Amino acid sequence: MSQSQNLIEASTDRGVTTLALDSPATRNALSAPLVAELADALSACGKDPAVRAVVLTHTGSTFSAGADLKAPPGPYAFVDLLRQIVELPKPVVGVVEGHARAGGLGLLGACDIVVASDAADFALTEVRIGVAPAVISLTLLPKLDQRAAARYYLTGERFGAAQARAMGLVTAPAADLDGILDGLRGASPQGLRASKRLVTARVLEAFERDAEELVQLSASLFASAEAREGMTAFLERRDPAWRL
Questions:
Q1: 137 vs 139: CA distance, rounded Å
Q2: Residues 49 and 15: beta-carbon distance below 8 Å
Q3: Rounded mean pLDDT of the chain?
Q4: Which of 40, 151, 223, 241 has its CA 20 to 30 A from that of 229?
Q5: Which residues form a coiled coil (predicted)?
């Protein structure tokens, strides 16, 4: 497996392949090229019998700032990436050491296990630019506490690692990572595949039932006048017109 790619940094240690989003200049925004490279790297991991598990992490201070507003992936490409993580026949462990926003939380929702340092923080910021966390609801809503989801979907507030654990986004503190990986290294490949199918079944039901409707909702919101104002305001670093 290649040790470096343009936007994904890959390394392997004792059967665990680490894929790091490696575009710190854009805060690892989910551009079309980054999504495509990550999909290719995951596919290689899924086919490699030497890979027992995958760690998905980041370089720089941001796990992901969400969709790249200048070069976004197509909505179907992003849905396919989320589903690929959920269906990968190897467990995927998300590791967050910094900021995670919007679509970045969708990636974490697709992971089987997520650990976060005390310095990590999170926000579902879509509502602040005139859209909604539509597509990423496929991986988030089956896992999140519903009261917490309502609060952070509707307000766009930031929250820390402790709240992320309480609401179901994060599994454990970063200090638990070595023990988690040791457990995965001791598990049989067949056992991991079968166990992952059990714990992801409900998420995959959401893909079958809701994916097309959520893609269409996302597309209609991003094409709206409010979203154009919201994205323009974000890029110009000013308040949108609706700010009270």
A1: 5
A2: no
A3: 96
A4: 151
A5: none
Q: Tell me whether residue 109 is exposed, middle or buried, using C-beta atoms within 10 angstroms of its C-beta: 0 to 12, 13 to 18, 19 or more.
A: buried
- First CA to last CA distance, the chain: 52
pTM of structure: 0.95
- CATH architecture of the domain 1-174+189-244 equals Alpha-Beta Complex (3.90)
* Site of tokens 């296990």: 113
Helix (H) or strand (E) holding 138: helix 137-140
Q: Which two tokens stand for residue 48?
A: 């490699």
69 has pLDDT over 90: no
Q: Which helix (H) or strand (E) holds 172?
A: strand 172-173
Do the Cβ atoms of 91 and 113 come closer than 8 Å?
yes
Give tens-digit pLDDT for 78-88.
Answer: 999 999 999 99
Cα–Cα distance, 104 to 28 (Å, whole number): 9
